[in-house]
Design goal:
Largest sheet: 3 strands, mixed
Structural class: mainly alpha
Helix content: 55-70%
Shape: globular
Number of domains: 1
Number of helices: 9
Length: 265
Amino acid sequence: MLIYPDISPVAISVGPLEVHWYGLMYLVGFMGGWWLGRLRTRRPGTGWRAVEIGDLVFYAALGVVLGGRIGYTLVYNFSGFLADPLVLLRIWQGGMSFHGGLVGVLFAMWLYARRTGRTFFQVTDYIAPLIPVGLGAGRIGNFINGELWGKATDVPWAVVVNGVALHPSQLYEAALEGLALFVIMWWFTSRPRYRWAPSGLFLVCYGVFRIAVEFVRVPDENRGYLLLDWVTMGQLLSLPMIVFGLAMLAIAYARREPSGNQVAG
């Protein structure tokens, strides 16, 4: 078993200026998405230019940060927000909701699509394989912050925190929502796919991975289990993602419309 190291949440400190690891992980995610997005523009017939990816990532970043923080505050920490509204601004302390961030990104992509004359799903299909980099980095940030631990366990890879061996559920999510989801989405979009299919597959895979990890992850104290002493808020929010994702895949392969992002060679 691994003893959890005493990691300072501050990566760099210069006088009163502090740069937190959690913020750096988000920067890694955005920069990784930007680099991968530009890499994909080199493919023949992609319909995207490298200079467009900076704006695309900027819109996505705003959606992630604003949606993720607002979603977390309203769903998981509303009482804390009522007691201290400024908690909404303290992103460096952790507390970001993926589902809130997803809503924020979808709204941002709708705005970007309108601005550039593309369809909404042309944009979301393009960014689907770029998002897992940020998800994986964010979960590593959770591990560094020492938050979102799993349940007590005796598995050999458990992490001992304050004398208790726990599932490192943040690392499970980094491996599934980050690495595994990236490999699946990058492979799937490496050839032309029908419109809606990449977005649908992303929703299905994320929903399945998140529901699976929630079985060993300790729910938020102010929420606990919502049903049957094992159903969590994360699972309830992820289930519709799977349903919508499967419906989108079915529609994609029924309509067989080109995505608009690639043309067959």
